[in-house]
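Subject: for your reference before the review

Hello V.,

The reviewers asked for a structural picture of the protein, and I figured it would be easier to keep everything in one thread rather than splitting it across files. Below is the amino acid sequence we used in the manuscript, unchanged from the supplementary table.
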Amino acid sequence: MDISVRALASRASVAARLERLPMTHYQRRLFAIIATAWFFDSMDLGIMTFVLGSIKAEFGLTAAQTGLLASSSFLGMFLGAAIAGLLADRYGRKPVFQVSMIFWGVGSLMCGFAQDVNTLMAFRVLLGFGMGMEFPIGLSMVSEIVPAKSRGRYVAVLEGFWPIGFIAAGIVAYLCLPLIGWRGIFIALAIPAVFVFVVRRYVPESPRWLEDAGRTEEADAVTGRFEHAVMRSGRLGSLPDVAVSAPQAREDRRALFAEIWQGVYAKRTAMLWILWLFALLGYYGLTTWLGALLQQAGYEATKSVLYTVYISLAGIPGFIFAAWLLEAWGRKPTCVLTLLGSAAFAYLYGQAAATQAPLAYLIGAGLCMQFFLFGMWSVLYAYTPELYPTRSRATGAGFASSIGRIGSLAGPYVVGVLLPVAGQGGIFALGAASFVIAALVVVLLGVETKGRSLEELSH
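And here is what came back from the structure prediction:
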């Protein structure tokens, strides 16, 4: 075959070549590396839930000041998510993913040396900037290397590393808080940032992005690694034929933000922004305060941490259930179910806390609440990147995540301001209302993406 013809075939068929392959050890290893970085990231973000009460006591903060501190990392996430999406669609997924890990590692380290609350807030913003960068890029990378028939399940499992990281953060806090304090915990959580060297060595650039950026030889080489892994695994006797189509004209990559507000993408973007805003407003407004609210109710710091860990354990079956339901039932109905389930049990948990119900009832309601909340996260992260084309996928996912961080930023602070007025019951009722609004917008504007390739979903 003529070299130019081979190049044309490679350029035109990268997506089709990937979609015809089964999952092998190679894809799973890449997924495991990305998921491990996600796990460390979630530990750094989740640790604030478990040490917030101790920081509040050490610095003598008011409820409003505590809420502002809890919100500070989300300001960084708001900026990081928006910037990272644009950079990843322009310059590639892999380099931005690596830079994000450096930011959150340095931010966590510096938090451990903060001598006053203002300095601590500034370093939490830096840490949040790195986290905000990582989330949409990790989503795009996994979405673009996993075939459509497995994509929803794997992205949902990726998000499952968030509750696992959250629980691990609680265990670390429970074991280490009495020994090294919250400063030592922040310093220790900076160490996993060296995992960036593993990402640099083993994770390739997204072949779909390479093709779309016009780097066809590199796209062909990376796709060839996937095909070689399939043949080496013995899963197929020979690779299936792949259709060769005419190359698609590449869009102007300087207009990526404008594209997500044009044509069919405008409705999807509006739906995602409202969904992320209210889902994260409710989630972070409630969960960031869980440990501190238990301390306020009279439980000592270590017991409040332990009870919060117990409640969070339900997140593991929650994301597993959501991962299965995404492929068995679909993205849209699963999203609505998890949001309404979160709303119902958030309200019941708040009433139990407000009326000082028996501890078993409180933990039972909390378990059900976290089951649906972490299931909700799995749906958000599986659904969002599927709604945009490759050239603007990270931009679309990044801005949706960024808008969600406005809710993340506002939620903990609003709780701190309203808690003295509304009480715990009122706070959880407001959180439940946020989840209901998010569910309604999905019902009205959401589209189903189950079982469809990323290219089929693009217009």
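For the response letter, the relevant points are probably these. The longest helix spans residues 393-445. Residues 89 and 220 are 19 Å apart (CA to CA).

Happy to draft the paragraph if you're swamped.

O.
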